[in-house]
Amino acid sequence: xxxxxxxxxxxxxxxxxxxxxxxxxxxxxxxxxxxxxxxxxxxxxxxxxxxxxxxxxxxxxxxxxxxxxxxxxxxxxxxxxxxxxxxxxxxxxxxxxxxxxxxxxxxxxxxxxxxxxxxxxxxxxxxxxxxxxxxxxxxxxxxxxxx
Length: 147
Ligand code: CA2
Known about the structure:
This protein is an alpha/beta fold. It has 5 helices and 5 strands.
């Protein structure tokens, strides 16, 4: 059976490739999602990619993933550092979860150093740009196939 992975991107990540290429690179969110689809194919997995600027939508998608998905890749954007609601939904979902950040959040402002998502993620990849998503998918594949 093909494992299904939900890839969630949070606020402002729809702006990838449009602003701040020095921090987030020049590729668009569509480029990131295409790279994930290609990697998923190579790993015989399937991915569904979603992005929202709204916290509640992200929470609802995590809730819906409980019955439909086998794993989760999430870049929660700034909600990483603020959202108890997202943490609660991830905690309830109990899905293998890898947290992704394009930038190295530990080399940036102090307020980016704490992540609520990290409290429930199996692992976190940051600072490797869009390649982090591809690596995250490999990590989920490994987790799902050694469980
Ligand atoms: O490094 C990451 O991936 C972040 O999750 C990105 C968030 C930031 O709040 C986190 O601390 C780290 C911000 C996403 C903003 O994305 C933009 C992309 C291009 C242009 C403007 C914003």
